[in-house]
Amino acid sequence: MNSNLQFMVQPGGCLTGHMRVPGDKSISHRSIMLGALAEGVTEVAGFLEGEDSLNTLRCFRRMGVKIEDPETLGAGRVRIHGVGLHGLKKPDSTLWLGNSGTSMRLMSGIIAGQDFDAVMEGDESLSGRPMRRVTEPLALMGAQIDTQDGGRPPLRVHGGSALKGINYVMPMASAQVKSCVLLAGLYAMGETCVTEPAPTRDHTERMLQGFGYDVRRVAGEGGVSTVCLTGGGVLKATNIDVPADISSAAFFLVAASIAPGSDLVLQHVGVNPTRTGVIEILRLMGANIEILNERTVGGEPVADLRVRSAKLKGIAISEALVPLAIDEFPVLFIAAACAQGETVLTGAEELRVKESDRIQVMADGLHALGVDAQPTPDGMIIRGGTMHGGSVTTHGDHRIGMSFAVAALRATGEIRIEDCENVNTSFPGFVELAQRAGLRIRAEQVAA
Ligand code: S3P
Questions:
Q1: Do 315 and 297 share a structural domain?
Q2: For ligand 1, is residue 102 a contact (CB within 6 Å)?
Q3: Of the candidates 241, 257, 272, which is a domain's last residue?
Q4: Which end of the chain, C or N, has fewer beta carbons within 10 A?
């Protein structure tokens, strides 16, 4: 019998206290990948023990890397015995990536540089996601990758191709594509450069530098920037302290903003400027967020965030902020539904190819709660007002589930959220942490 994890969230409540959300997903994936390809032993603290980053960990084990995990070392601790850039082994069967687009796209770049073939596949959501955005630049570098119809997974990456450096101008602002090309560039002859149309998260560049690899970054005009590296170098093992994930903190930034009487401190949150669009957008809407104790940990900026409830107002979101808040729009739509006036998002067509079509799925859920939300091809127009209770489905998308849980703080009746199993991909322990902070949430397994 199939089961379905549902969240039931009672209306009302406010958020208080101090809390630390789990480790950053993007940095956790990269810590395994670069740690595996480095020479020496890399120690990681604060690793995200969510299904997505654990799938990356399992895949590198399957390619012959010894990795000690939190089960033996304790919470958040991982020890990776690096095998060097040329030490990976052919996996004995298909690599399973579950729900994780980051794993598939970044690993395509790494596996393209190996001398063995490997097949990567994932769940229903990942199997529907576009992969040409990585297979095309990799083909320009000389890689051979087979996809299914429409450039979808599973992907078969053929090893043994000699890669050459390219100068790639990305058609979309995507950190996954940029990272994929740079990782393949480690194996390429000559220089590989990637130009992005707008700044995207730069964890790969920062971490490569942390592993002693020379990365050159050139800022261009109007946000356009280029990053280059030369193949054939060496990664030297290092220690990594993964900050709390601002994309997970975002649920609580919105929750405490919309729930009257809230005063919450989120500790040790990664505030890399390529990730802080959510803070900027919320502040423009009138949120009261203080950035405290700013510091740098292992090459990444970190801070504590104090958020108190505030009256939010609708805004037109600048398109320049879209890549800097790309994973936070589901919960920002909830903020917009609680704000006075109209919020308009444009230039965010990438939301349609995330773990779900986040424009349509959020619009459907908001409609079920009586919110005036009009989806557009590249965004949404939301008029704030009252929200009633009701039933919504996540379509298997973790961030949709957590966003509607936050909505209950301001709904007039219970919100029932179906298909919440995947919350575990990025935020293990969400229900317990949310309860502790003040959400009236419970999880229930029901027969599907
Ligand atoms: C990620 C990049 C973003 C983001 C994803 C993680 C990364 O994807 O949405 O959750 O770790 O590089 P895109 O590159 O598709 O924008």
A1: yes
A2: yes
A3: 241
A4: N
Closest CA to 277 of 324, 326, 336, 343: 324
Mutate to test the pocket of ligand 1, among 126, 174, 357 (most ligand atoms within 8 A of CB): 174
| Whether residue 56 is found in the same domain as residue 123 | yes
Q: List the one residue out of 50, 166, 25, 36 whose CA is nearest residue 102.
A: 25
46 CA from centroid of ligand 1 (Å): 20
Which tokens belong to 304?
A: 């504590």
Structurally, how many domains does the chain consist of?
2
Give the integer Cα–Cα distance in Å for 329 and 253: 13
Within 178-327, strands assigned E span 191-196, 216-219, 225-230, 239-241, 263-270, 288-297, 300-308
Pocket of ligand 1 contains residue 178 by CB under 6 Å: no
Kindly state if the Cβ of 179 falls inside 6 Å of ligand 1. yes
327 lines ligand 1 (CB under 6 A): yes
Q: Is 201 a pocket residue for ligand 1 (Cβ < 6 Å)?
A: yes
> Tens of pLDDT along 300-355?
999 999 999 999 999 999 999 999 999 999 999 999 999 999 999 999 999 999 99
| 175 Cα to the center of ligand 1, angstroms | 6
Q: Which two tokens stand for residue 61?
A: 């084990």
- Boundary-marking domain end, from 215, 241, 267: 241
Whole-number Å distance, alpha carbon 385 to ligand 1 midpoint, is 31
pTM equals 0.98
pLDDT digits (tens, 9 = 90+) for 243-284: 999 999 999 999 999 999 999 999 999 999 999 999 999 999
pLDDT, residue 2, reads: 60
Ligand 1, atom 5: nearest CA belongs to which residue? 102
pLDDT of residue 48 exceeding 60:
yes
* Catalytic pick among 24, 202, 245, 327: 327
Does residue 300 have its Cβ closer than 6 Å to ligand 1?
no
DSSP 124: H
- CA-based nearest residue to 357, from 8, 365, 3, 250: 365
Question: Same structural domain for residues 14 and 41?
Answer: no
Q: 63 lies in which domain range?
A: 25-241
